[in-house]
Amino acid sequence: MTLHIKNVWLQDKGLVDIHTVAGKIKTIGPALPPLANAQTLDANGLAAVSGLVNGHTHAAMSLFRGFGDDMQLMDWLQTRIWPAEAKLNEEDVYWGSRLACLEMIRSGTVAFEDMYWHFHGMARAVEDSGLRAGVGAVMIDIAGEKQGEECRAQAVQYLEESSRYSDRVKFTLTPHAIYTVSAKSLSWTAEFSDKHNLPVHIHLSETPFEVSECLKNHGVRPAVHLDQQGLLTPRTILAHGVCLDDAELDLIAKRGSTIVSNPVSNMKLAVGGAFPYLKAAKRGIPIGLGSDGAASNNSLDMFQEVKTFSLIQKHTNNDPTVLPAADAWRVVTGVDAPLLGQGSGLLKAGENADIVLVRREEPELTPNHDFISNMVYSATGHVVDTVIVAGKILMKNRIIDGEKEIRLEAAARAKKLCEI
């Protein structure tokens, strides 16, 4: 597919045109000549920005948005989420994930890292939505060795079957956490990841309880335990990282793993702290930003997430200069965590044609003293007009094909799942 985007505004460049060919940005410049057989999109002065990246979520949990809010974590899980999840089938996951993709497109997200059940339901939803995503096979074996064997066999099977999808669907290994996955399965995951060069996406150090249990059961802290199983590598995505100490951060930096902070979910579930961004950034650790699932956020709007991310770091460090807008924007667009977005996160020739067009004359972006500050501190997903992924227009004038069907089907399935 070839696309000619005309009259688009770029910060520091003014009005330019963008040519995309075969899913990549080919040329950016003023008044470019027409491309043969190209689709033309006149941006009429809309601002082009890099697409946002959601580094950790559970997309199909959009079905459980608002189902059991303001509850203690274990009570919420045991009385609401786990009983509802036990009813899930592949089609439920497909439609829940389609709903999540719809919300993400409308708020400018072009890529996300997911962790949930029913791999093919998620993968089909990503394929049909047009987004990019890391999609995996959840591994949990707290029920014993038989469950572990089934999870490992399933991961092998799903890897083989993942070839039926486009390269926008990236197969990822997703062991849930160190407290739900045995050391044997974690070690197997490390070996399988190394053999097939696969990313690994896992929760780590989200709560003080996780740390104390790891010390009690293994005699070391969570990051050390994960490293002992061979799972701290440049291919590893660590979700949360709230309770990491200095020695663990040193180890993660040495191994080259990526940490994804999820500030809204962490605050809503009252995990008892904030991700130590300054310490991680000073060590050069790749850092991304995630929403977590819509059941514990309850939004997938990464504009809201990036504002909260910056503000909680300023508040926690008692310093308004911490995590300025430009740095926060690099994080939410995946520039500081290349493992997450399947690209550099930059709008330049040779990079993925993943482009978001923003209505820069909306009230919340006026006046334009500093465009990036407006994007981080003022904007919400409402300012997004058009979303392009791999050179294909997924939304224009805030209209997405099939939106009503997705909403109605997801709502009907959610109602059935959440009947108590």
Helix content: 25-40%
Report the sheet with the most strands, covering strand number, pairing sense and barrel closure. 4 strands, mixed
What's the gyration radius in Å? 21 Å
CATH fold-level name of the largest domain: TIM Barrel
* Termini separation: 48 Å
How many H/I helical runs?
A: 15
Outline type: globular
The number of E-state strands comes to 16
Structure overview:
This protein is α/β, with parallel strands linked by helices and 420 residues long. The protein folds into 2 domains: 2-50 and 351-403, Urease, subunit C, domain 1 (Roll); 52-341, Metal-dependent hydrolases (TIM Barrel). The chain has 15 helices and 16 strands. It has a 4-stranded mixed sheet, with no helix packed on it. Strands 5-14-15-16 form a 4-stranded antiparallel sheet, with no helix packed on it. It has a 4-stranded parallel sheet with strand order 6-7-8-9. The chain is globular, with a radius of gyration of 21 Å. The mean pLDDT is 96.
